[in-house]
Structures
1.
Amino acid sequence: MLKIEQLTKIYPGEPPVKALSDITLEMGEGLFGLLGPNGAGKSTLMKILAGLLEPTSGKVTLDALDLANPKDRIRHYERLGYLPQDFGFHGHLTGERMLSFLLELKGVTGPRGRKALVSELLERVNLAQAAKRKVREYSGGMRQRLGIAQALAGDPRLVIVDEPTAGLDPEERLRFYRLLSELAVGRLILLSTHIVEDVATLCPKFAVIRKGKLVAMTTPKNARENLKGHIFEGVVEQPELENLRNEYHVTQAMVYEGANKVRIYLEQGSPPVGFESVPPTLEDAYFISMKNESNGAIATGLENVAGGVL
Ligand code: ADP
Ligand code: MG
C-alpha cells in the first residue's frame, strides 16, 4: 500500500544535514511503528510522506500514486490524514470551532454537511462532551484526540501521526492507544515515536531508524525472540556498575531500592555472578540496536534490513 524506495533527504546548509539515508520500506494496512531517538529523522520522513517536504532522491508511492507526480500528489492529499509533531492549537477556540476551522482549511465537508461531520468526528474520538469547551482547557490527551479528529476527516487511507504520545500521562496514553487501534481497521496508521512502549503495545510491525538510517524492520515478538537466552539480570552497587559497563553490554540500568537493577546482553560465555537469565523485552532489543554500530542481525536483537526489506 505505501512504498518507500531509496529515500534520501539532505537539508542544504553549512554544513548540509543528511537527515535520511537510502530508506526502503513497505507497509500494508494496520498500525506501523517508526521508532527512533530524537534527531533520527522521523519527522523528516513523516513530512515527506505527507507531501509537505521534497526528498533529495528516492520515490514514494501510495496505492500506486507517485508523490513526485503533481496530479497524483493531489489525489494523495485526499487520501491522507496528518497529525504533525508540532500541531498548532488555537486555545481561545472551542474544540468544535477549532475542528470546524481545520476541516474548512482541509476542504472537507462530509455528505451531511460540515456541522454533522464535526459532531461525528468529535464523537469518534470521545470528545463530544468537551465540544463547547475552549481548547486551552483541554488536557494533552484531549488535544491529541482533537488532532486525530482532523486527521480522520475525509476517511483517509493513510494516517500519519508524529510522536502523538510524548507528554501524555499513562492513563491518557492508554486511551490514545485504544483509539489508534480502533482506527487502524481498513487503513494504514503510521506512528512515529521514541517511546518503545508505544510500539510494544500497538504495532504488529515496526521499523527502527537511527541517524537517518533504517536499522531494522521486524515484529515485537521476533525482536524479543532473537534475544532469548542472551539477556541476564542482576542487582549491583554503584561502583560495580561501572566495571560491568566496561566488561559487558549493559542494555538497561535502573535504580532499584538504593542499588542498580542491571540487564546485560551476552552473546556467549557466562554471566557475572548473581545474574540470571530473564525473558527479553523490546526495550532490550531497542537499546542494543541503538548502541551497536555494526547493525549485525543477532547483535542488534532485531532483524537486520541493511540494503532491503524483509
Ligand atoms: P526526529 O523527528 O526523529 O527527531 P528530525 O527529522 O526532526 O528527527 O531531524 C533529523 C535531522 O535533521 C536532525 O539532525 C535535525 O537537526 C535535522 N533537521 C531537521 N529539520 C531540519 C531543517 N529544516 N534544516 C536543517 N536540518 C534539519
Ligand atoms: Mg520529530
Note: The two ends are 16 Å apart (CA to CA).
2.
Amino acid sequence: MHGTNVLVTGGCGFIGSHFIKGLLSRDSSTTVINLDLLTYAGDPKNVGEWAESPRYKFVHGDIRDPELVDRLIPQVDSVFNFAAESHVDRSTGKDAGEFIKTNVYGVFVLLDAIRRLRPEIRFLQVGTDEVYGDIEAPGFPAENAILQPSSPYSASKAGADELALSFSRTHNLDVRISRCTNNYGPYQYPEKVIPLFITNALDEQPLPLYDGGTQIRDWLRVSDHCEALHLIMEKGQSGEIYNVGANQSPERSNAEITQMILAATGASASLIEPRSGLRPGHDQRYAVATDKIRDLGWAPQLDIEQGISETVSWYIENRKWWEAHKDAAYQAYYSDHYGQKKKT
Ligand code: NAD
Ligand code: TYD
C-alpha cells in the first residue's frame, strides 16, 4: 500500500465503508482517518468492529470545511475521496445545489489543501461511468471519450474529474481518477434500485420500475470496485483515469435485475409497478471499456445472479440495518418522490 496513513472521505457511506474495512484488513500498519458529514446516506456503524480499532479514527465533518481539511491533510500519505451526494433522482429535484457544493467545491477544498500542505501525496477521486452519458450499444467508451453527463449528479462528478485533472496539470499533484459502473452489495442505502427493490419486495411493497425497465447498467460487486481502487493507488499512474466495470455479458436490463430480485426474495411479480416521469433525462445504457484497469491485473466477478442472491440474503439477515434507514426522513423523501404512501 502506498502510504500507511490514509484519509478516506465519505467512509460511512456504502462504498467507502467497504473500502475502509478492506484497507484495514489487508495491512496491519495502515491507519485510516474517515472524514464524513453523516448526511442521510452515512452511518458510522457501517465500518463494523473497525470503529473500535486504534488504527481507525472517525472525524465527523465536511470536506467543504477548509480549516478542518487543513488539519487532516498533514497527517496522511494518501487520500481516497468517496464523499459525495450520490443519488441521481435527488439531483434532478430540489437538492441539486448540494450536489454541486459537495461534489465539485468539496473536491476543490481537498485538492487545494493538498496543493498547499502536502503536494507530494496521492489523491484518488472516486468517479463514475455516468460522466460519459447515454452510450448507444454496442459502444464502450475508453477513458479519453468525451464527457456527456445527463443529470446534475453526473455533471457534478464530471466537474470534479476535470478539476482534479487541472490540479494534476497545473500544480503537478499526483491525482488518479476511477470511473466505475453501478455497484451493488451489502450496506447500500435503500434508495438505489437494487436495495430499494430488495427491501420493498421483502415487505411486499411496490417495485417502481421506471420507463419499461429496458435500461442497462453494468452491475459490479462493491468488493470488486474496492479492489480496483487499491490497485489504481498502488499500481496506477499519476494523472491517469481508469474505467472500472464488470462488462456483463449478456448485458442485463433493469427488468431482468428485477426478476432476479423477485426470484431471490420469493416475492410476486405483481409487485412490479411500471412508472414513468420520475427520472427525467433517463440514460438508457451505461458501459465502459475496461482494458486499462484489466492491464493492471484486475478482474471482476461476473456471476450477477449469485451476487444478487447473496445481497438478498444479507438484506434478509440485516433487516434492522435497513429498517433504521427507512426513517421519517426517508419516508418523506419516498412519498415526495414516488408520490405515494406505503401500501398497508
Ligand atoms: P453514499 O451516498 O452511500 O455515501 C456517500 C457518503 O459521503 C456518505 O457517508 C455521506 O455522509 C458522505 N458525505 C456526503 N457529503 C459529504 C461532505 N460534504 N463531506 C463529507 N462527507 C460527505 O455513496 P456511495 O454509493 O458509497 O458512493 C461513493 C462514491 O462513489 C461517490 O463519489 C459516488 O459518486 C461514487 N460512485 C458510486 C457508484 C455507485 O454505484 N454507488 C458507482 C460509481 C461511483
Ligand atoms: P439507480 O440505482 O438510481 O442508479 P443510477 O441512476 O446511478 O444508475 O438506478 C438504476 C436504474 O434503475 C436506472 O435505470 C433507474 C432505475 N430505477 C427504477 O427503475 N426505479 C427506481 O425506483 C430507481 C431508484 C431506479
Note: Residues 96-117 form the longest helix (22 residues).
3.
Amino acid sequence: MNVAEFLKPDTWFTAHAGPRYVQLRHRLEEAINMGILPPNSSLPPEREIAEITDLSRVTVRKAIHELVKTGMVEQRQGSGSFVRAPVARVEQSLSHLTSFTEDMKSRGLETTSRWLERGVFLPSPEEMMMLGLPSGSSVARIYRLREAGDQPMALERASLPLDILPNPVEVTVSLYDVLERSGNRPVRAAQKISAVNLTPEDAALLGVAEGAAGLSIQRISYLESGRVVEVTKSVYRGDAYDFVAELRLSD
Ligand code: 16G
C-alpha cells in the first residue's frame, strides 16, 4: 500500500475521536511503524497530506511537529520532513580500556570528530582538583562531537594536564594514539554512568529529540604510576549504546 492510500481519512478519521492533529499523528506513526514510510524516506509535502486527508495545513503541520518532537521524524532544511532511521546500537565493554576510535574500528565503523573546543585553558576548580594540578597551571581541553559511520554518537569533553598533552591541536583523530606515542596512554580507569535526559543543546548536536534518553559518563584515567592522565565527561546517545559488563563470582 502506498502512503497516499494509507492516509485516506475514511479508514481512520473519526470526527469526535479527539483532536484532528492527534489522529493524523497516530496514523503517520502507524505508517512509519508498518514500513509504509520506511527509514530515511520523505513524508509527502504538507500540502499533499492536507489534500489527501481533507485536513487543514495547520493541522498537518502540527501533527508533523509532534513527530519531530518525539524524534521519529526530522526536518532537513529546504528538503522537507524525513523518517529518522534508527541508529545501529553499539555494545561497549565495561572491562576493556579502549578508545572510541578502537571501539568503532572493531565494528568496521569509521570515526569522525567535530571539534567544539580544543586548546589550552585556565583550569576550573574541579579540573584542578581531579587532575591534581598545582595553582597557576594550565589545562589541555578537547571537546568533540564523536561520529561513527556518519551518525553522531557522543559528546566528549576531555581535560588533561598540560605536561601530558602539551599540544592539544596535535589530536586530530585519536587522543589515545597521541598519548600512546608519548608513553602516556592510560592503563586503568574508573567510570561512573548515569541516566540523563538530553538538554536542548546536547540533543541538537546529537541529532535526537530534546529530552531524549542519554548516558552521562565520567571517566578518570590513570597511568601505571597512579597519576591521573585524563578526566572526561561524556554524553552518549541512549539509543545508540549498550554498555556490557562480564561478571564473575568472586573467589
Ligand atoms: C573513550 C573514552 C574517553 C577517551 C576516548 C579516547 C569512554 C566513556 N570514554 O571514548 O575517555 O577520551 O575514548 O578516544 O569510554 P580516541 O582515542 O578515539 O580519541
Note: The beta strands are 73-76, 80-83, 90-93, 111-121, 139-148, 151-161, 188-197, 213-222, 228-237, 241-244.
4.
Amino acid sequence: MNHPITARAHTNIALTKYWGKKNEQLIIPNNSSISLTLDEFYTDTTVQFIDELSNDVIYLNDKLLSDNNKIIKFMDIVREKAGISTFAEIHSYNHVPTSAGLASSASGFAALAAAASKAAGLDLNEIELSRLARLGSGSATRSIYGGFAKWKKGNDDKTSYAVSVQDPVKMDIRMIAIVLNNSPKKISSREGMKISVETSPYYESWIKQTNDDLKTVENAIKDNNFTILGKTAELNSMRMHSLTLSSDPSYLYLNNDSLTVIHAVKNLRKNGIECYFTMDAGPNVKIICQSNNVSSIVKKISNLFNNNQIKVSKPGSKVKYL
Ligand code: 2P0
C-alpha cells in the first residue's frame, strides 16, 4: 500500500458545457455534457501514503501548498473508501496554466483520483474512477477518458459519471488554445455557476437548449460531421456565457483579447477557413478546426498574439499510470 503511484490525466474541453449543480456536495450536474480530451495539456500526479505523516503534504509544481481544502477533502474520501487513515505526500505537475479556464482542475482531479485510489490499495474501473474524480471537480469526471467523452448527469453519486463516446477519435479535429491570461480567475466556476442557477432568468432555457446541443454533437461525432460539431460547440459556448451576463450580479469571463480572437475566427470563416471558437470559465479562447487549416489559423493569430500563447492540440488519451 505504501508504494508511490503516478498517474497522468489530460485536460478536456467541453463541446457542450456543464454549468450548474443539482447537488453541490456530490457535484451532480443539472445537465449532461460532452467533451474532447486534449493531448497538449495534462497533469502528472504522484501519491504515496506514508505512516509517519500527521497530515497530507501537497506540492504543486514543486511548491508546497500551505492549505488546499479541496484536495484534503478529496483525500479524506479516498481514505474512507479504502478504509485507511494514513496521510499522503502528493506531488502534482501541471502542464496546464492553472486556474485560467484551461481546465487544470479537470486533469488535476482525474490524475489525483487515479493515483490516490491505486496508492490506497483500491482497484477501480473507469466508471468508478470517473465517479471518484467527479467528487473533486465536475469537469474531471470526463478526463478519465481519451477522445470524446460524455458525462451523463445521473441523479446521485452512483449514476453520475462519464463514458467514452469515441476513442481513438475518427474525426480530423484540432483545438488551438489561445492562452490570453494565465493568472487565476476572479470568479471561480464553482461560484459563477451557483450564481447563474440561482439568478439567471434564462437558466431553464439553457437546460433545454444544452440537452438539444448535446444530442446534435453526439450525432455529429457519429456522422463524422465536423461542420455541425464546430458550429454547435460555438453556439453552446455562447449560450453558456449568456448565463453569466444574465445573472445577478452579472459577471464576465471574456476580456478584450477574447473578443479579438472571436472576431478573428469570424473573419477567417468569412474568408473560407473553417474554424469555430469555444470558451470556458476564463478569457482563453479555444479554436476548433481541422488539420489542413491549422497553419493558416496560427499565422493569423500570431499577428495578434505571441507565438508562445498559441498551443495546438490533437485529441488526447485516457488516464494512465506512468
Ligand atoms: C465544463 N466548466 O463543462 C464547464 C464549462 C467551465 C465552463 O466544468 O465546481 O472546475 O469543480 O465542478 O469542473 C469548470 O468547472 O467546477 C467547468 P466544479 P469545474 O468544462
Note: The chain has two domains: 5-169, 174-313.
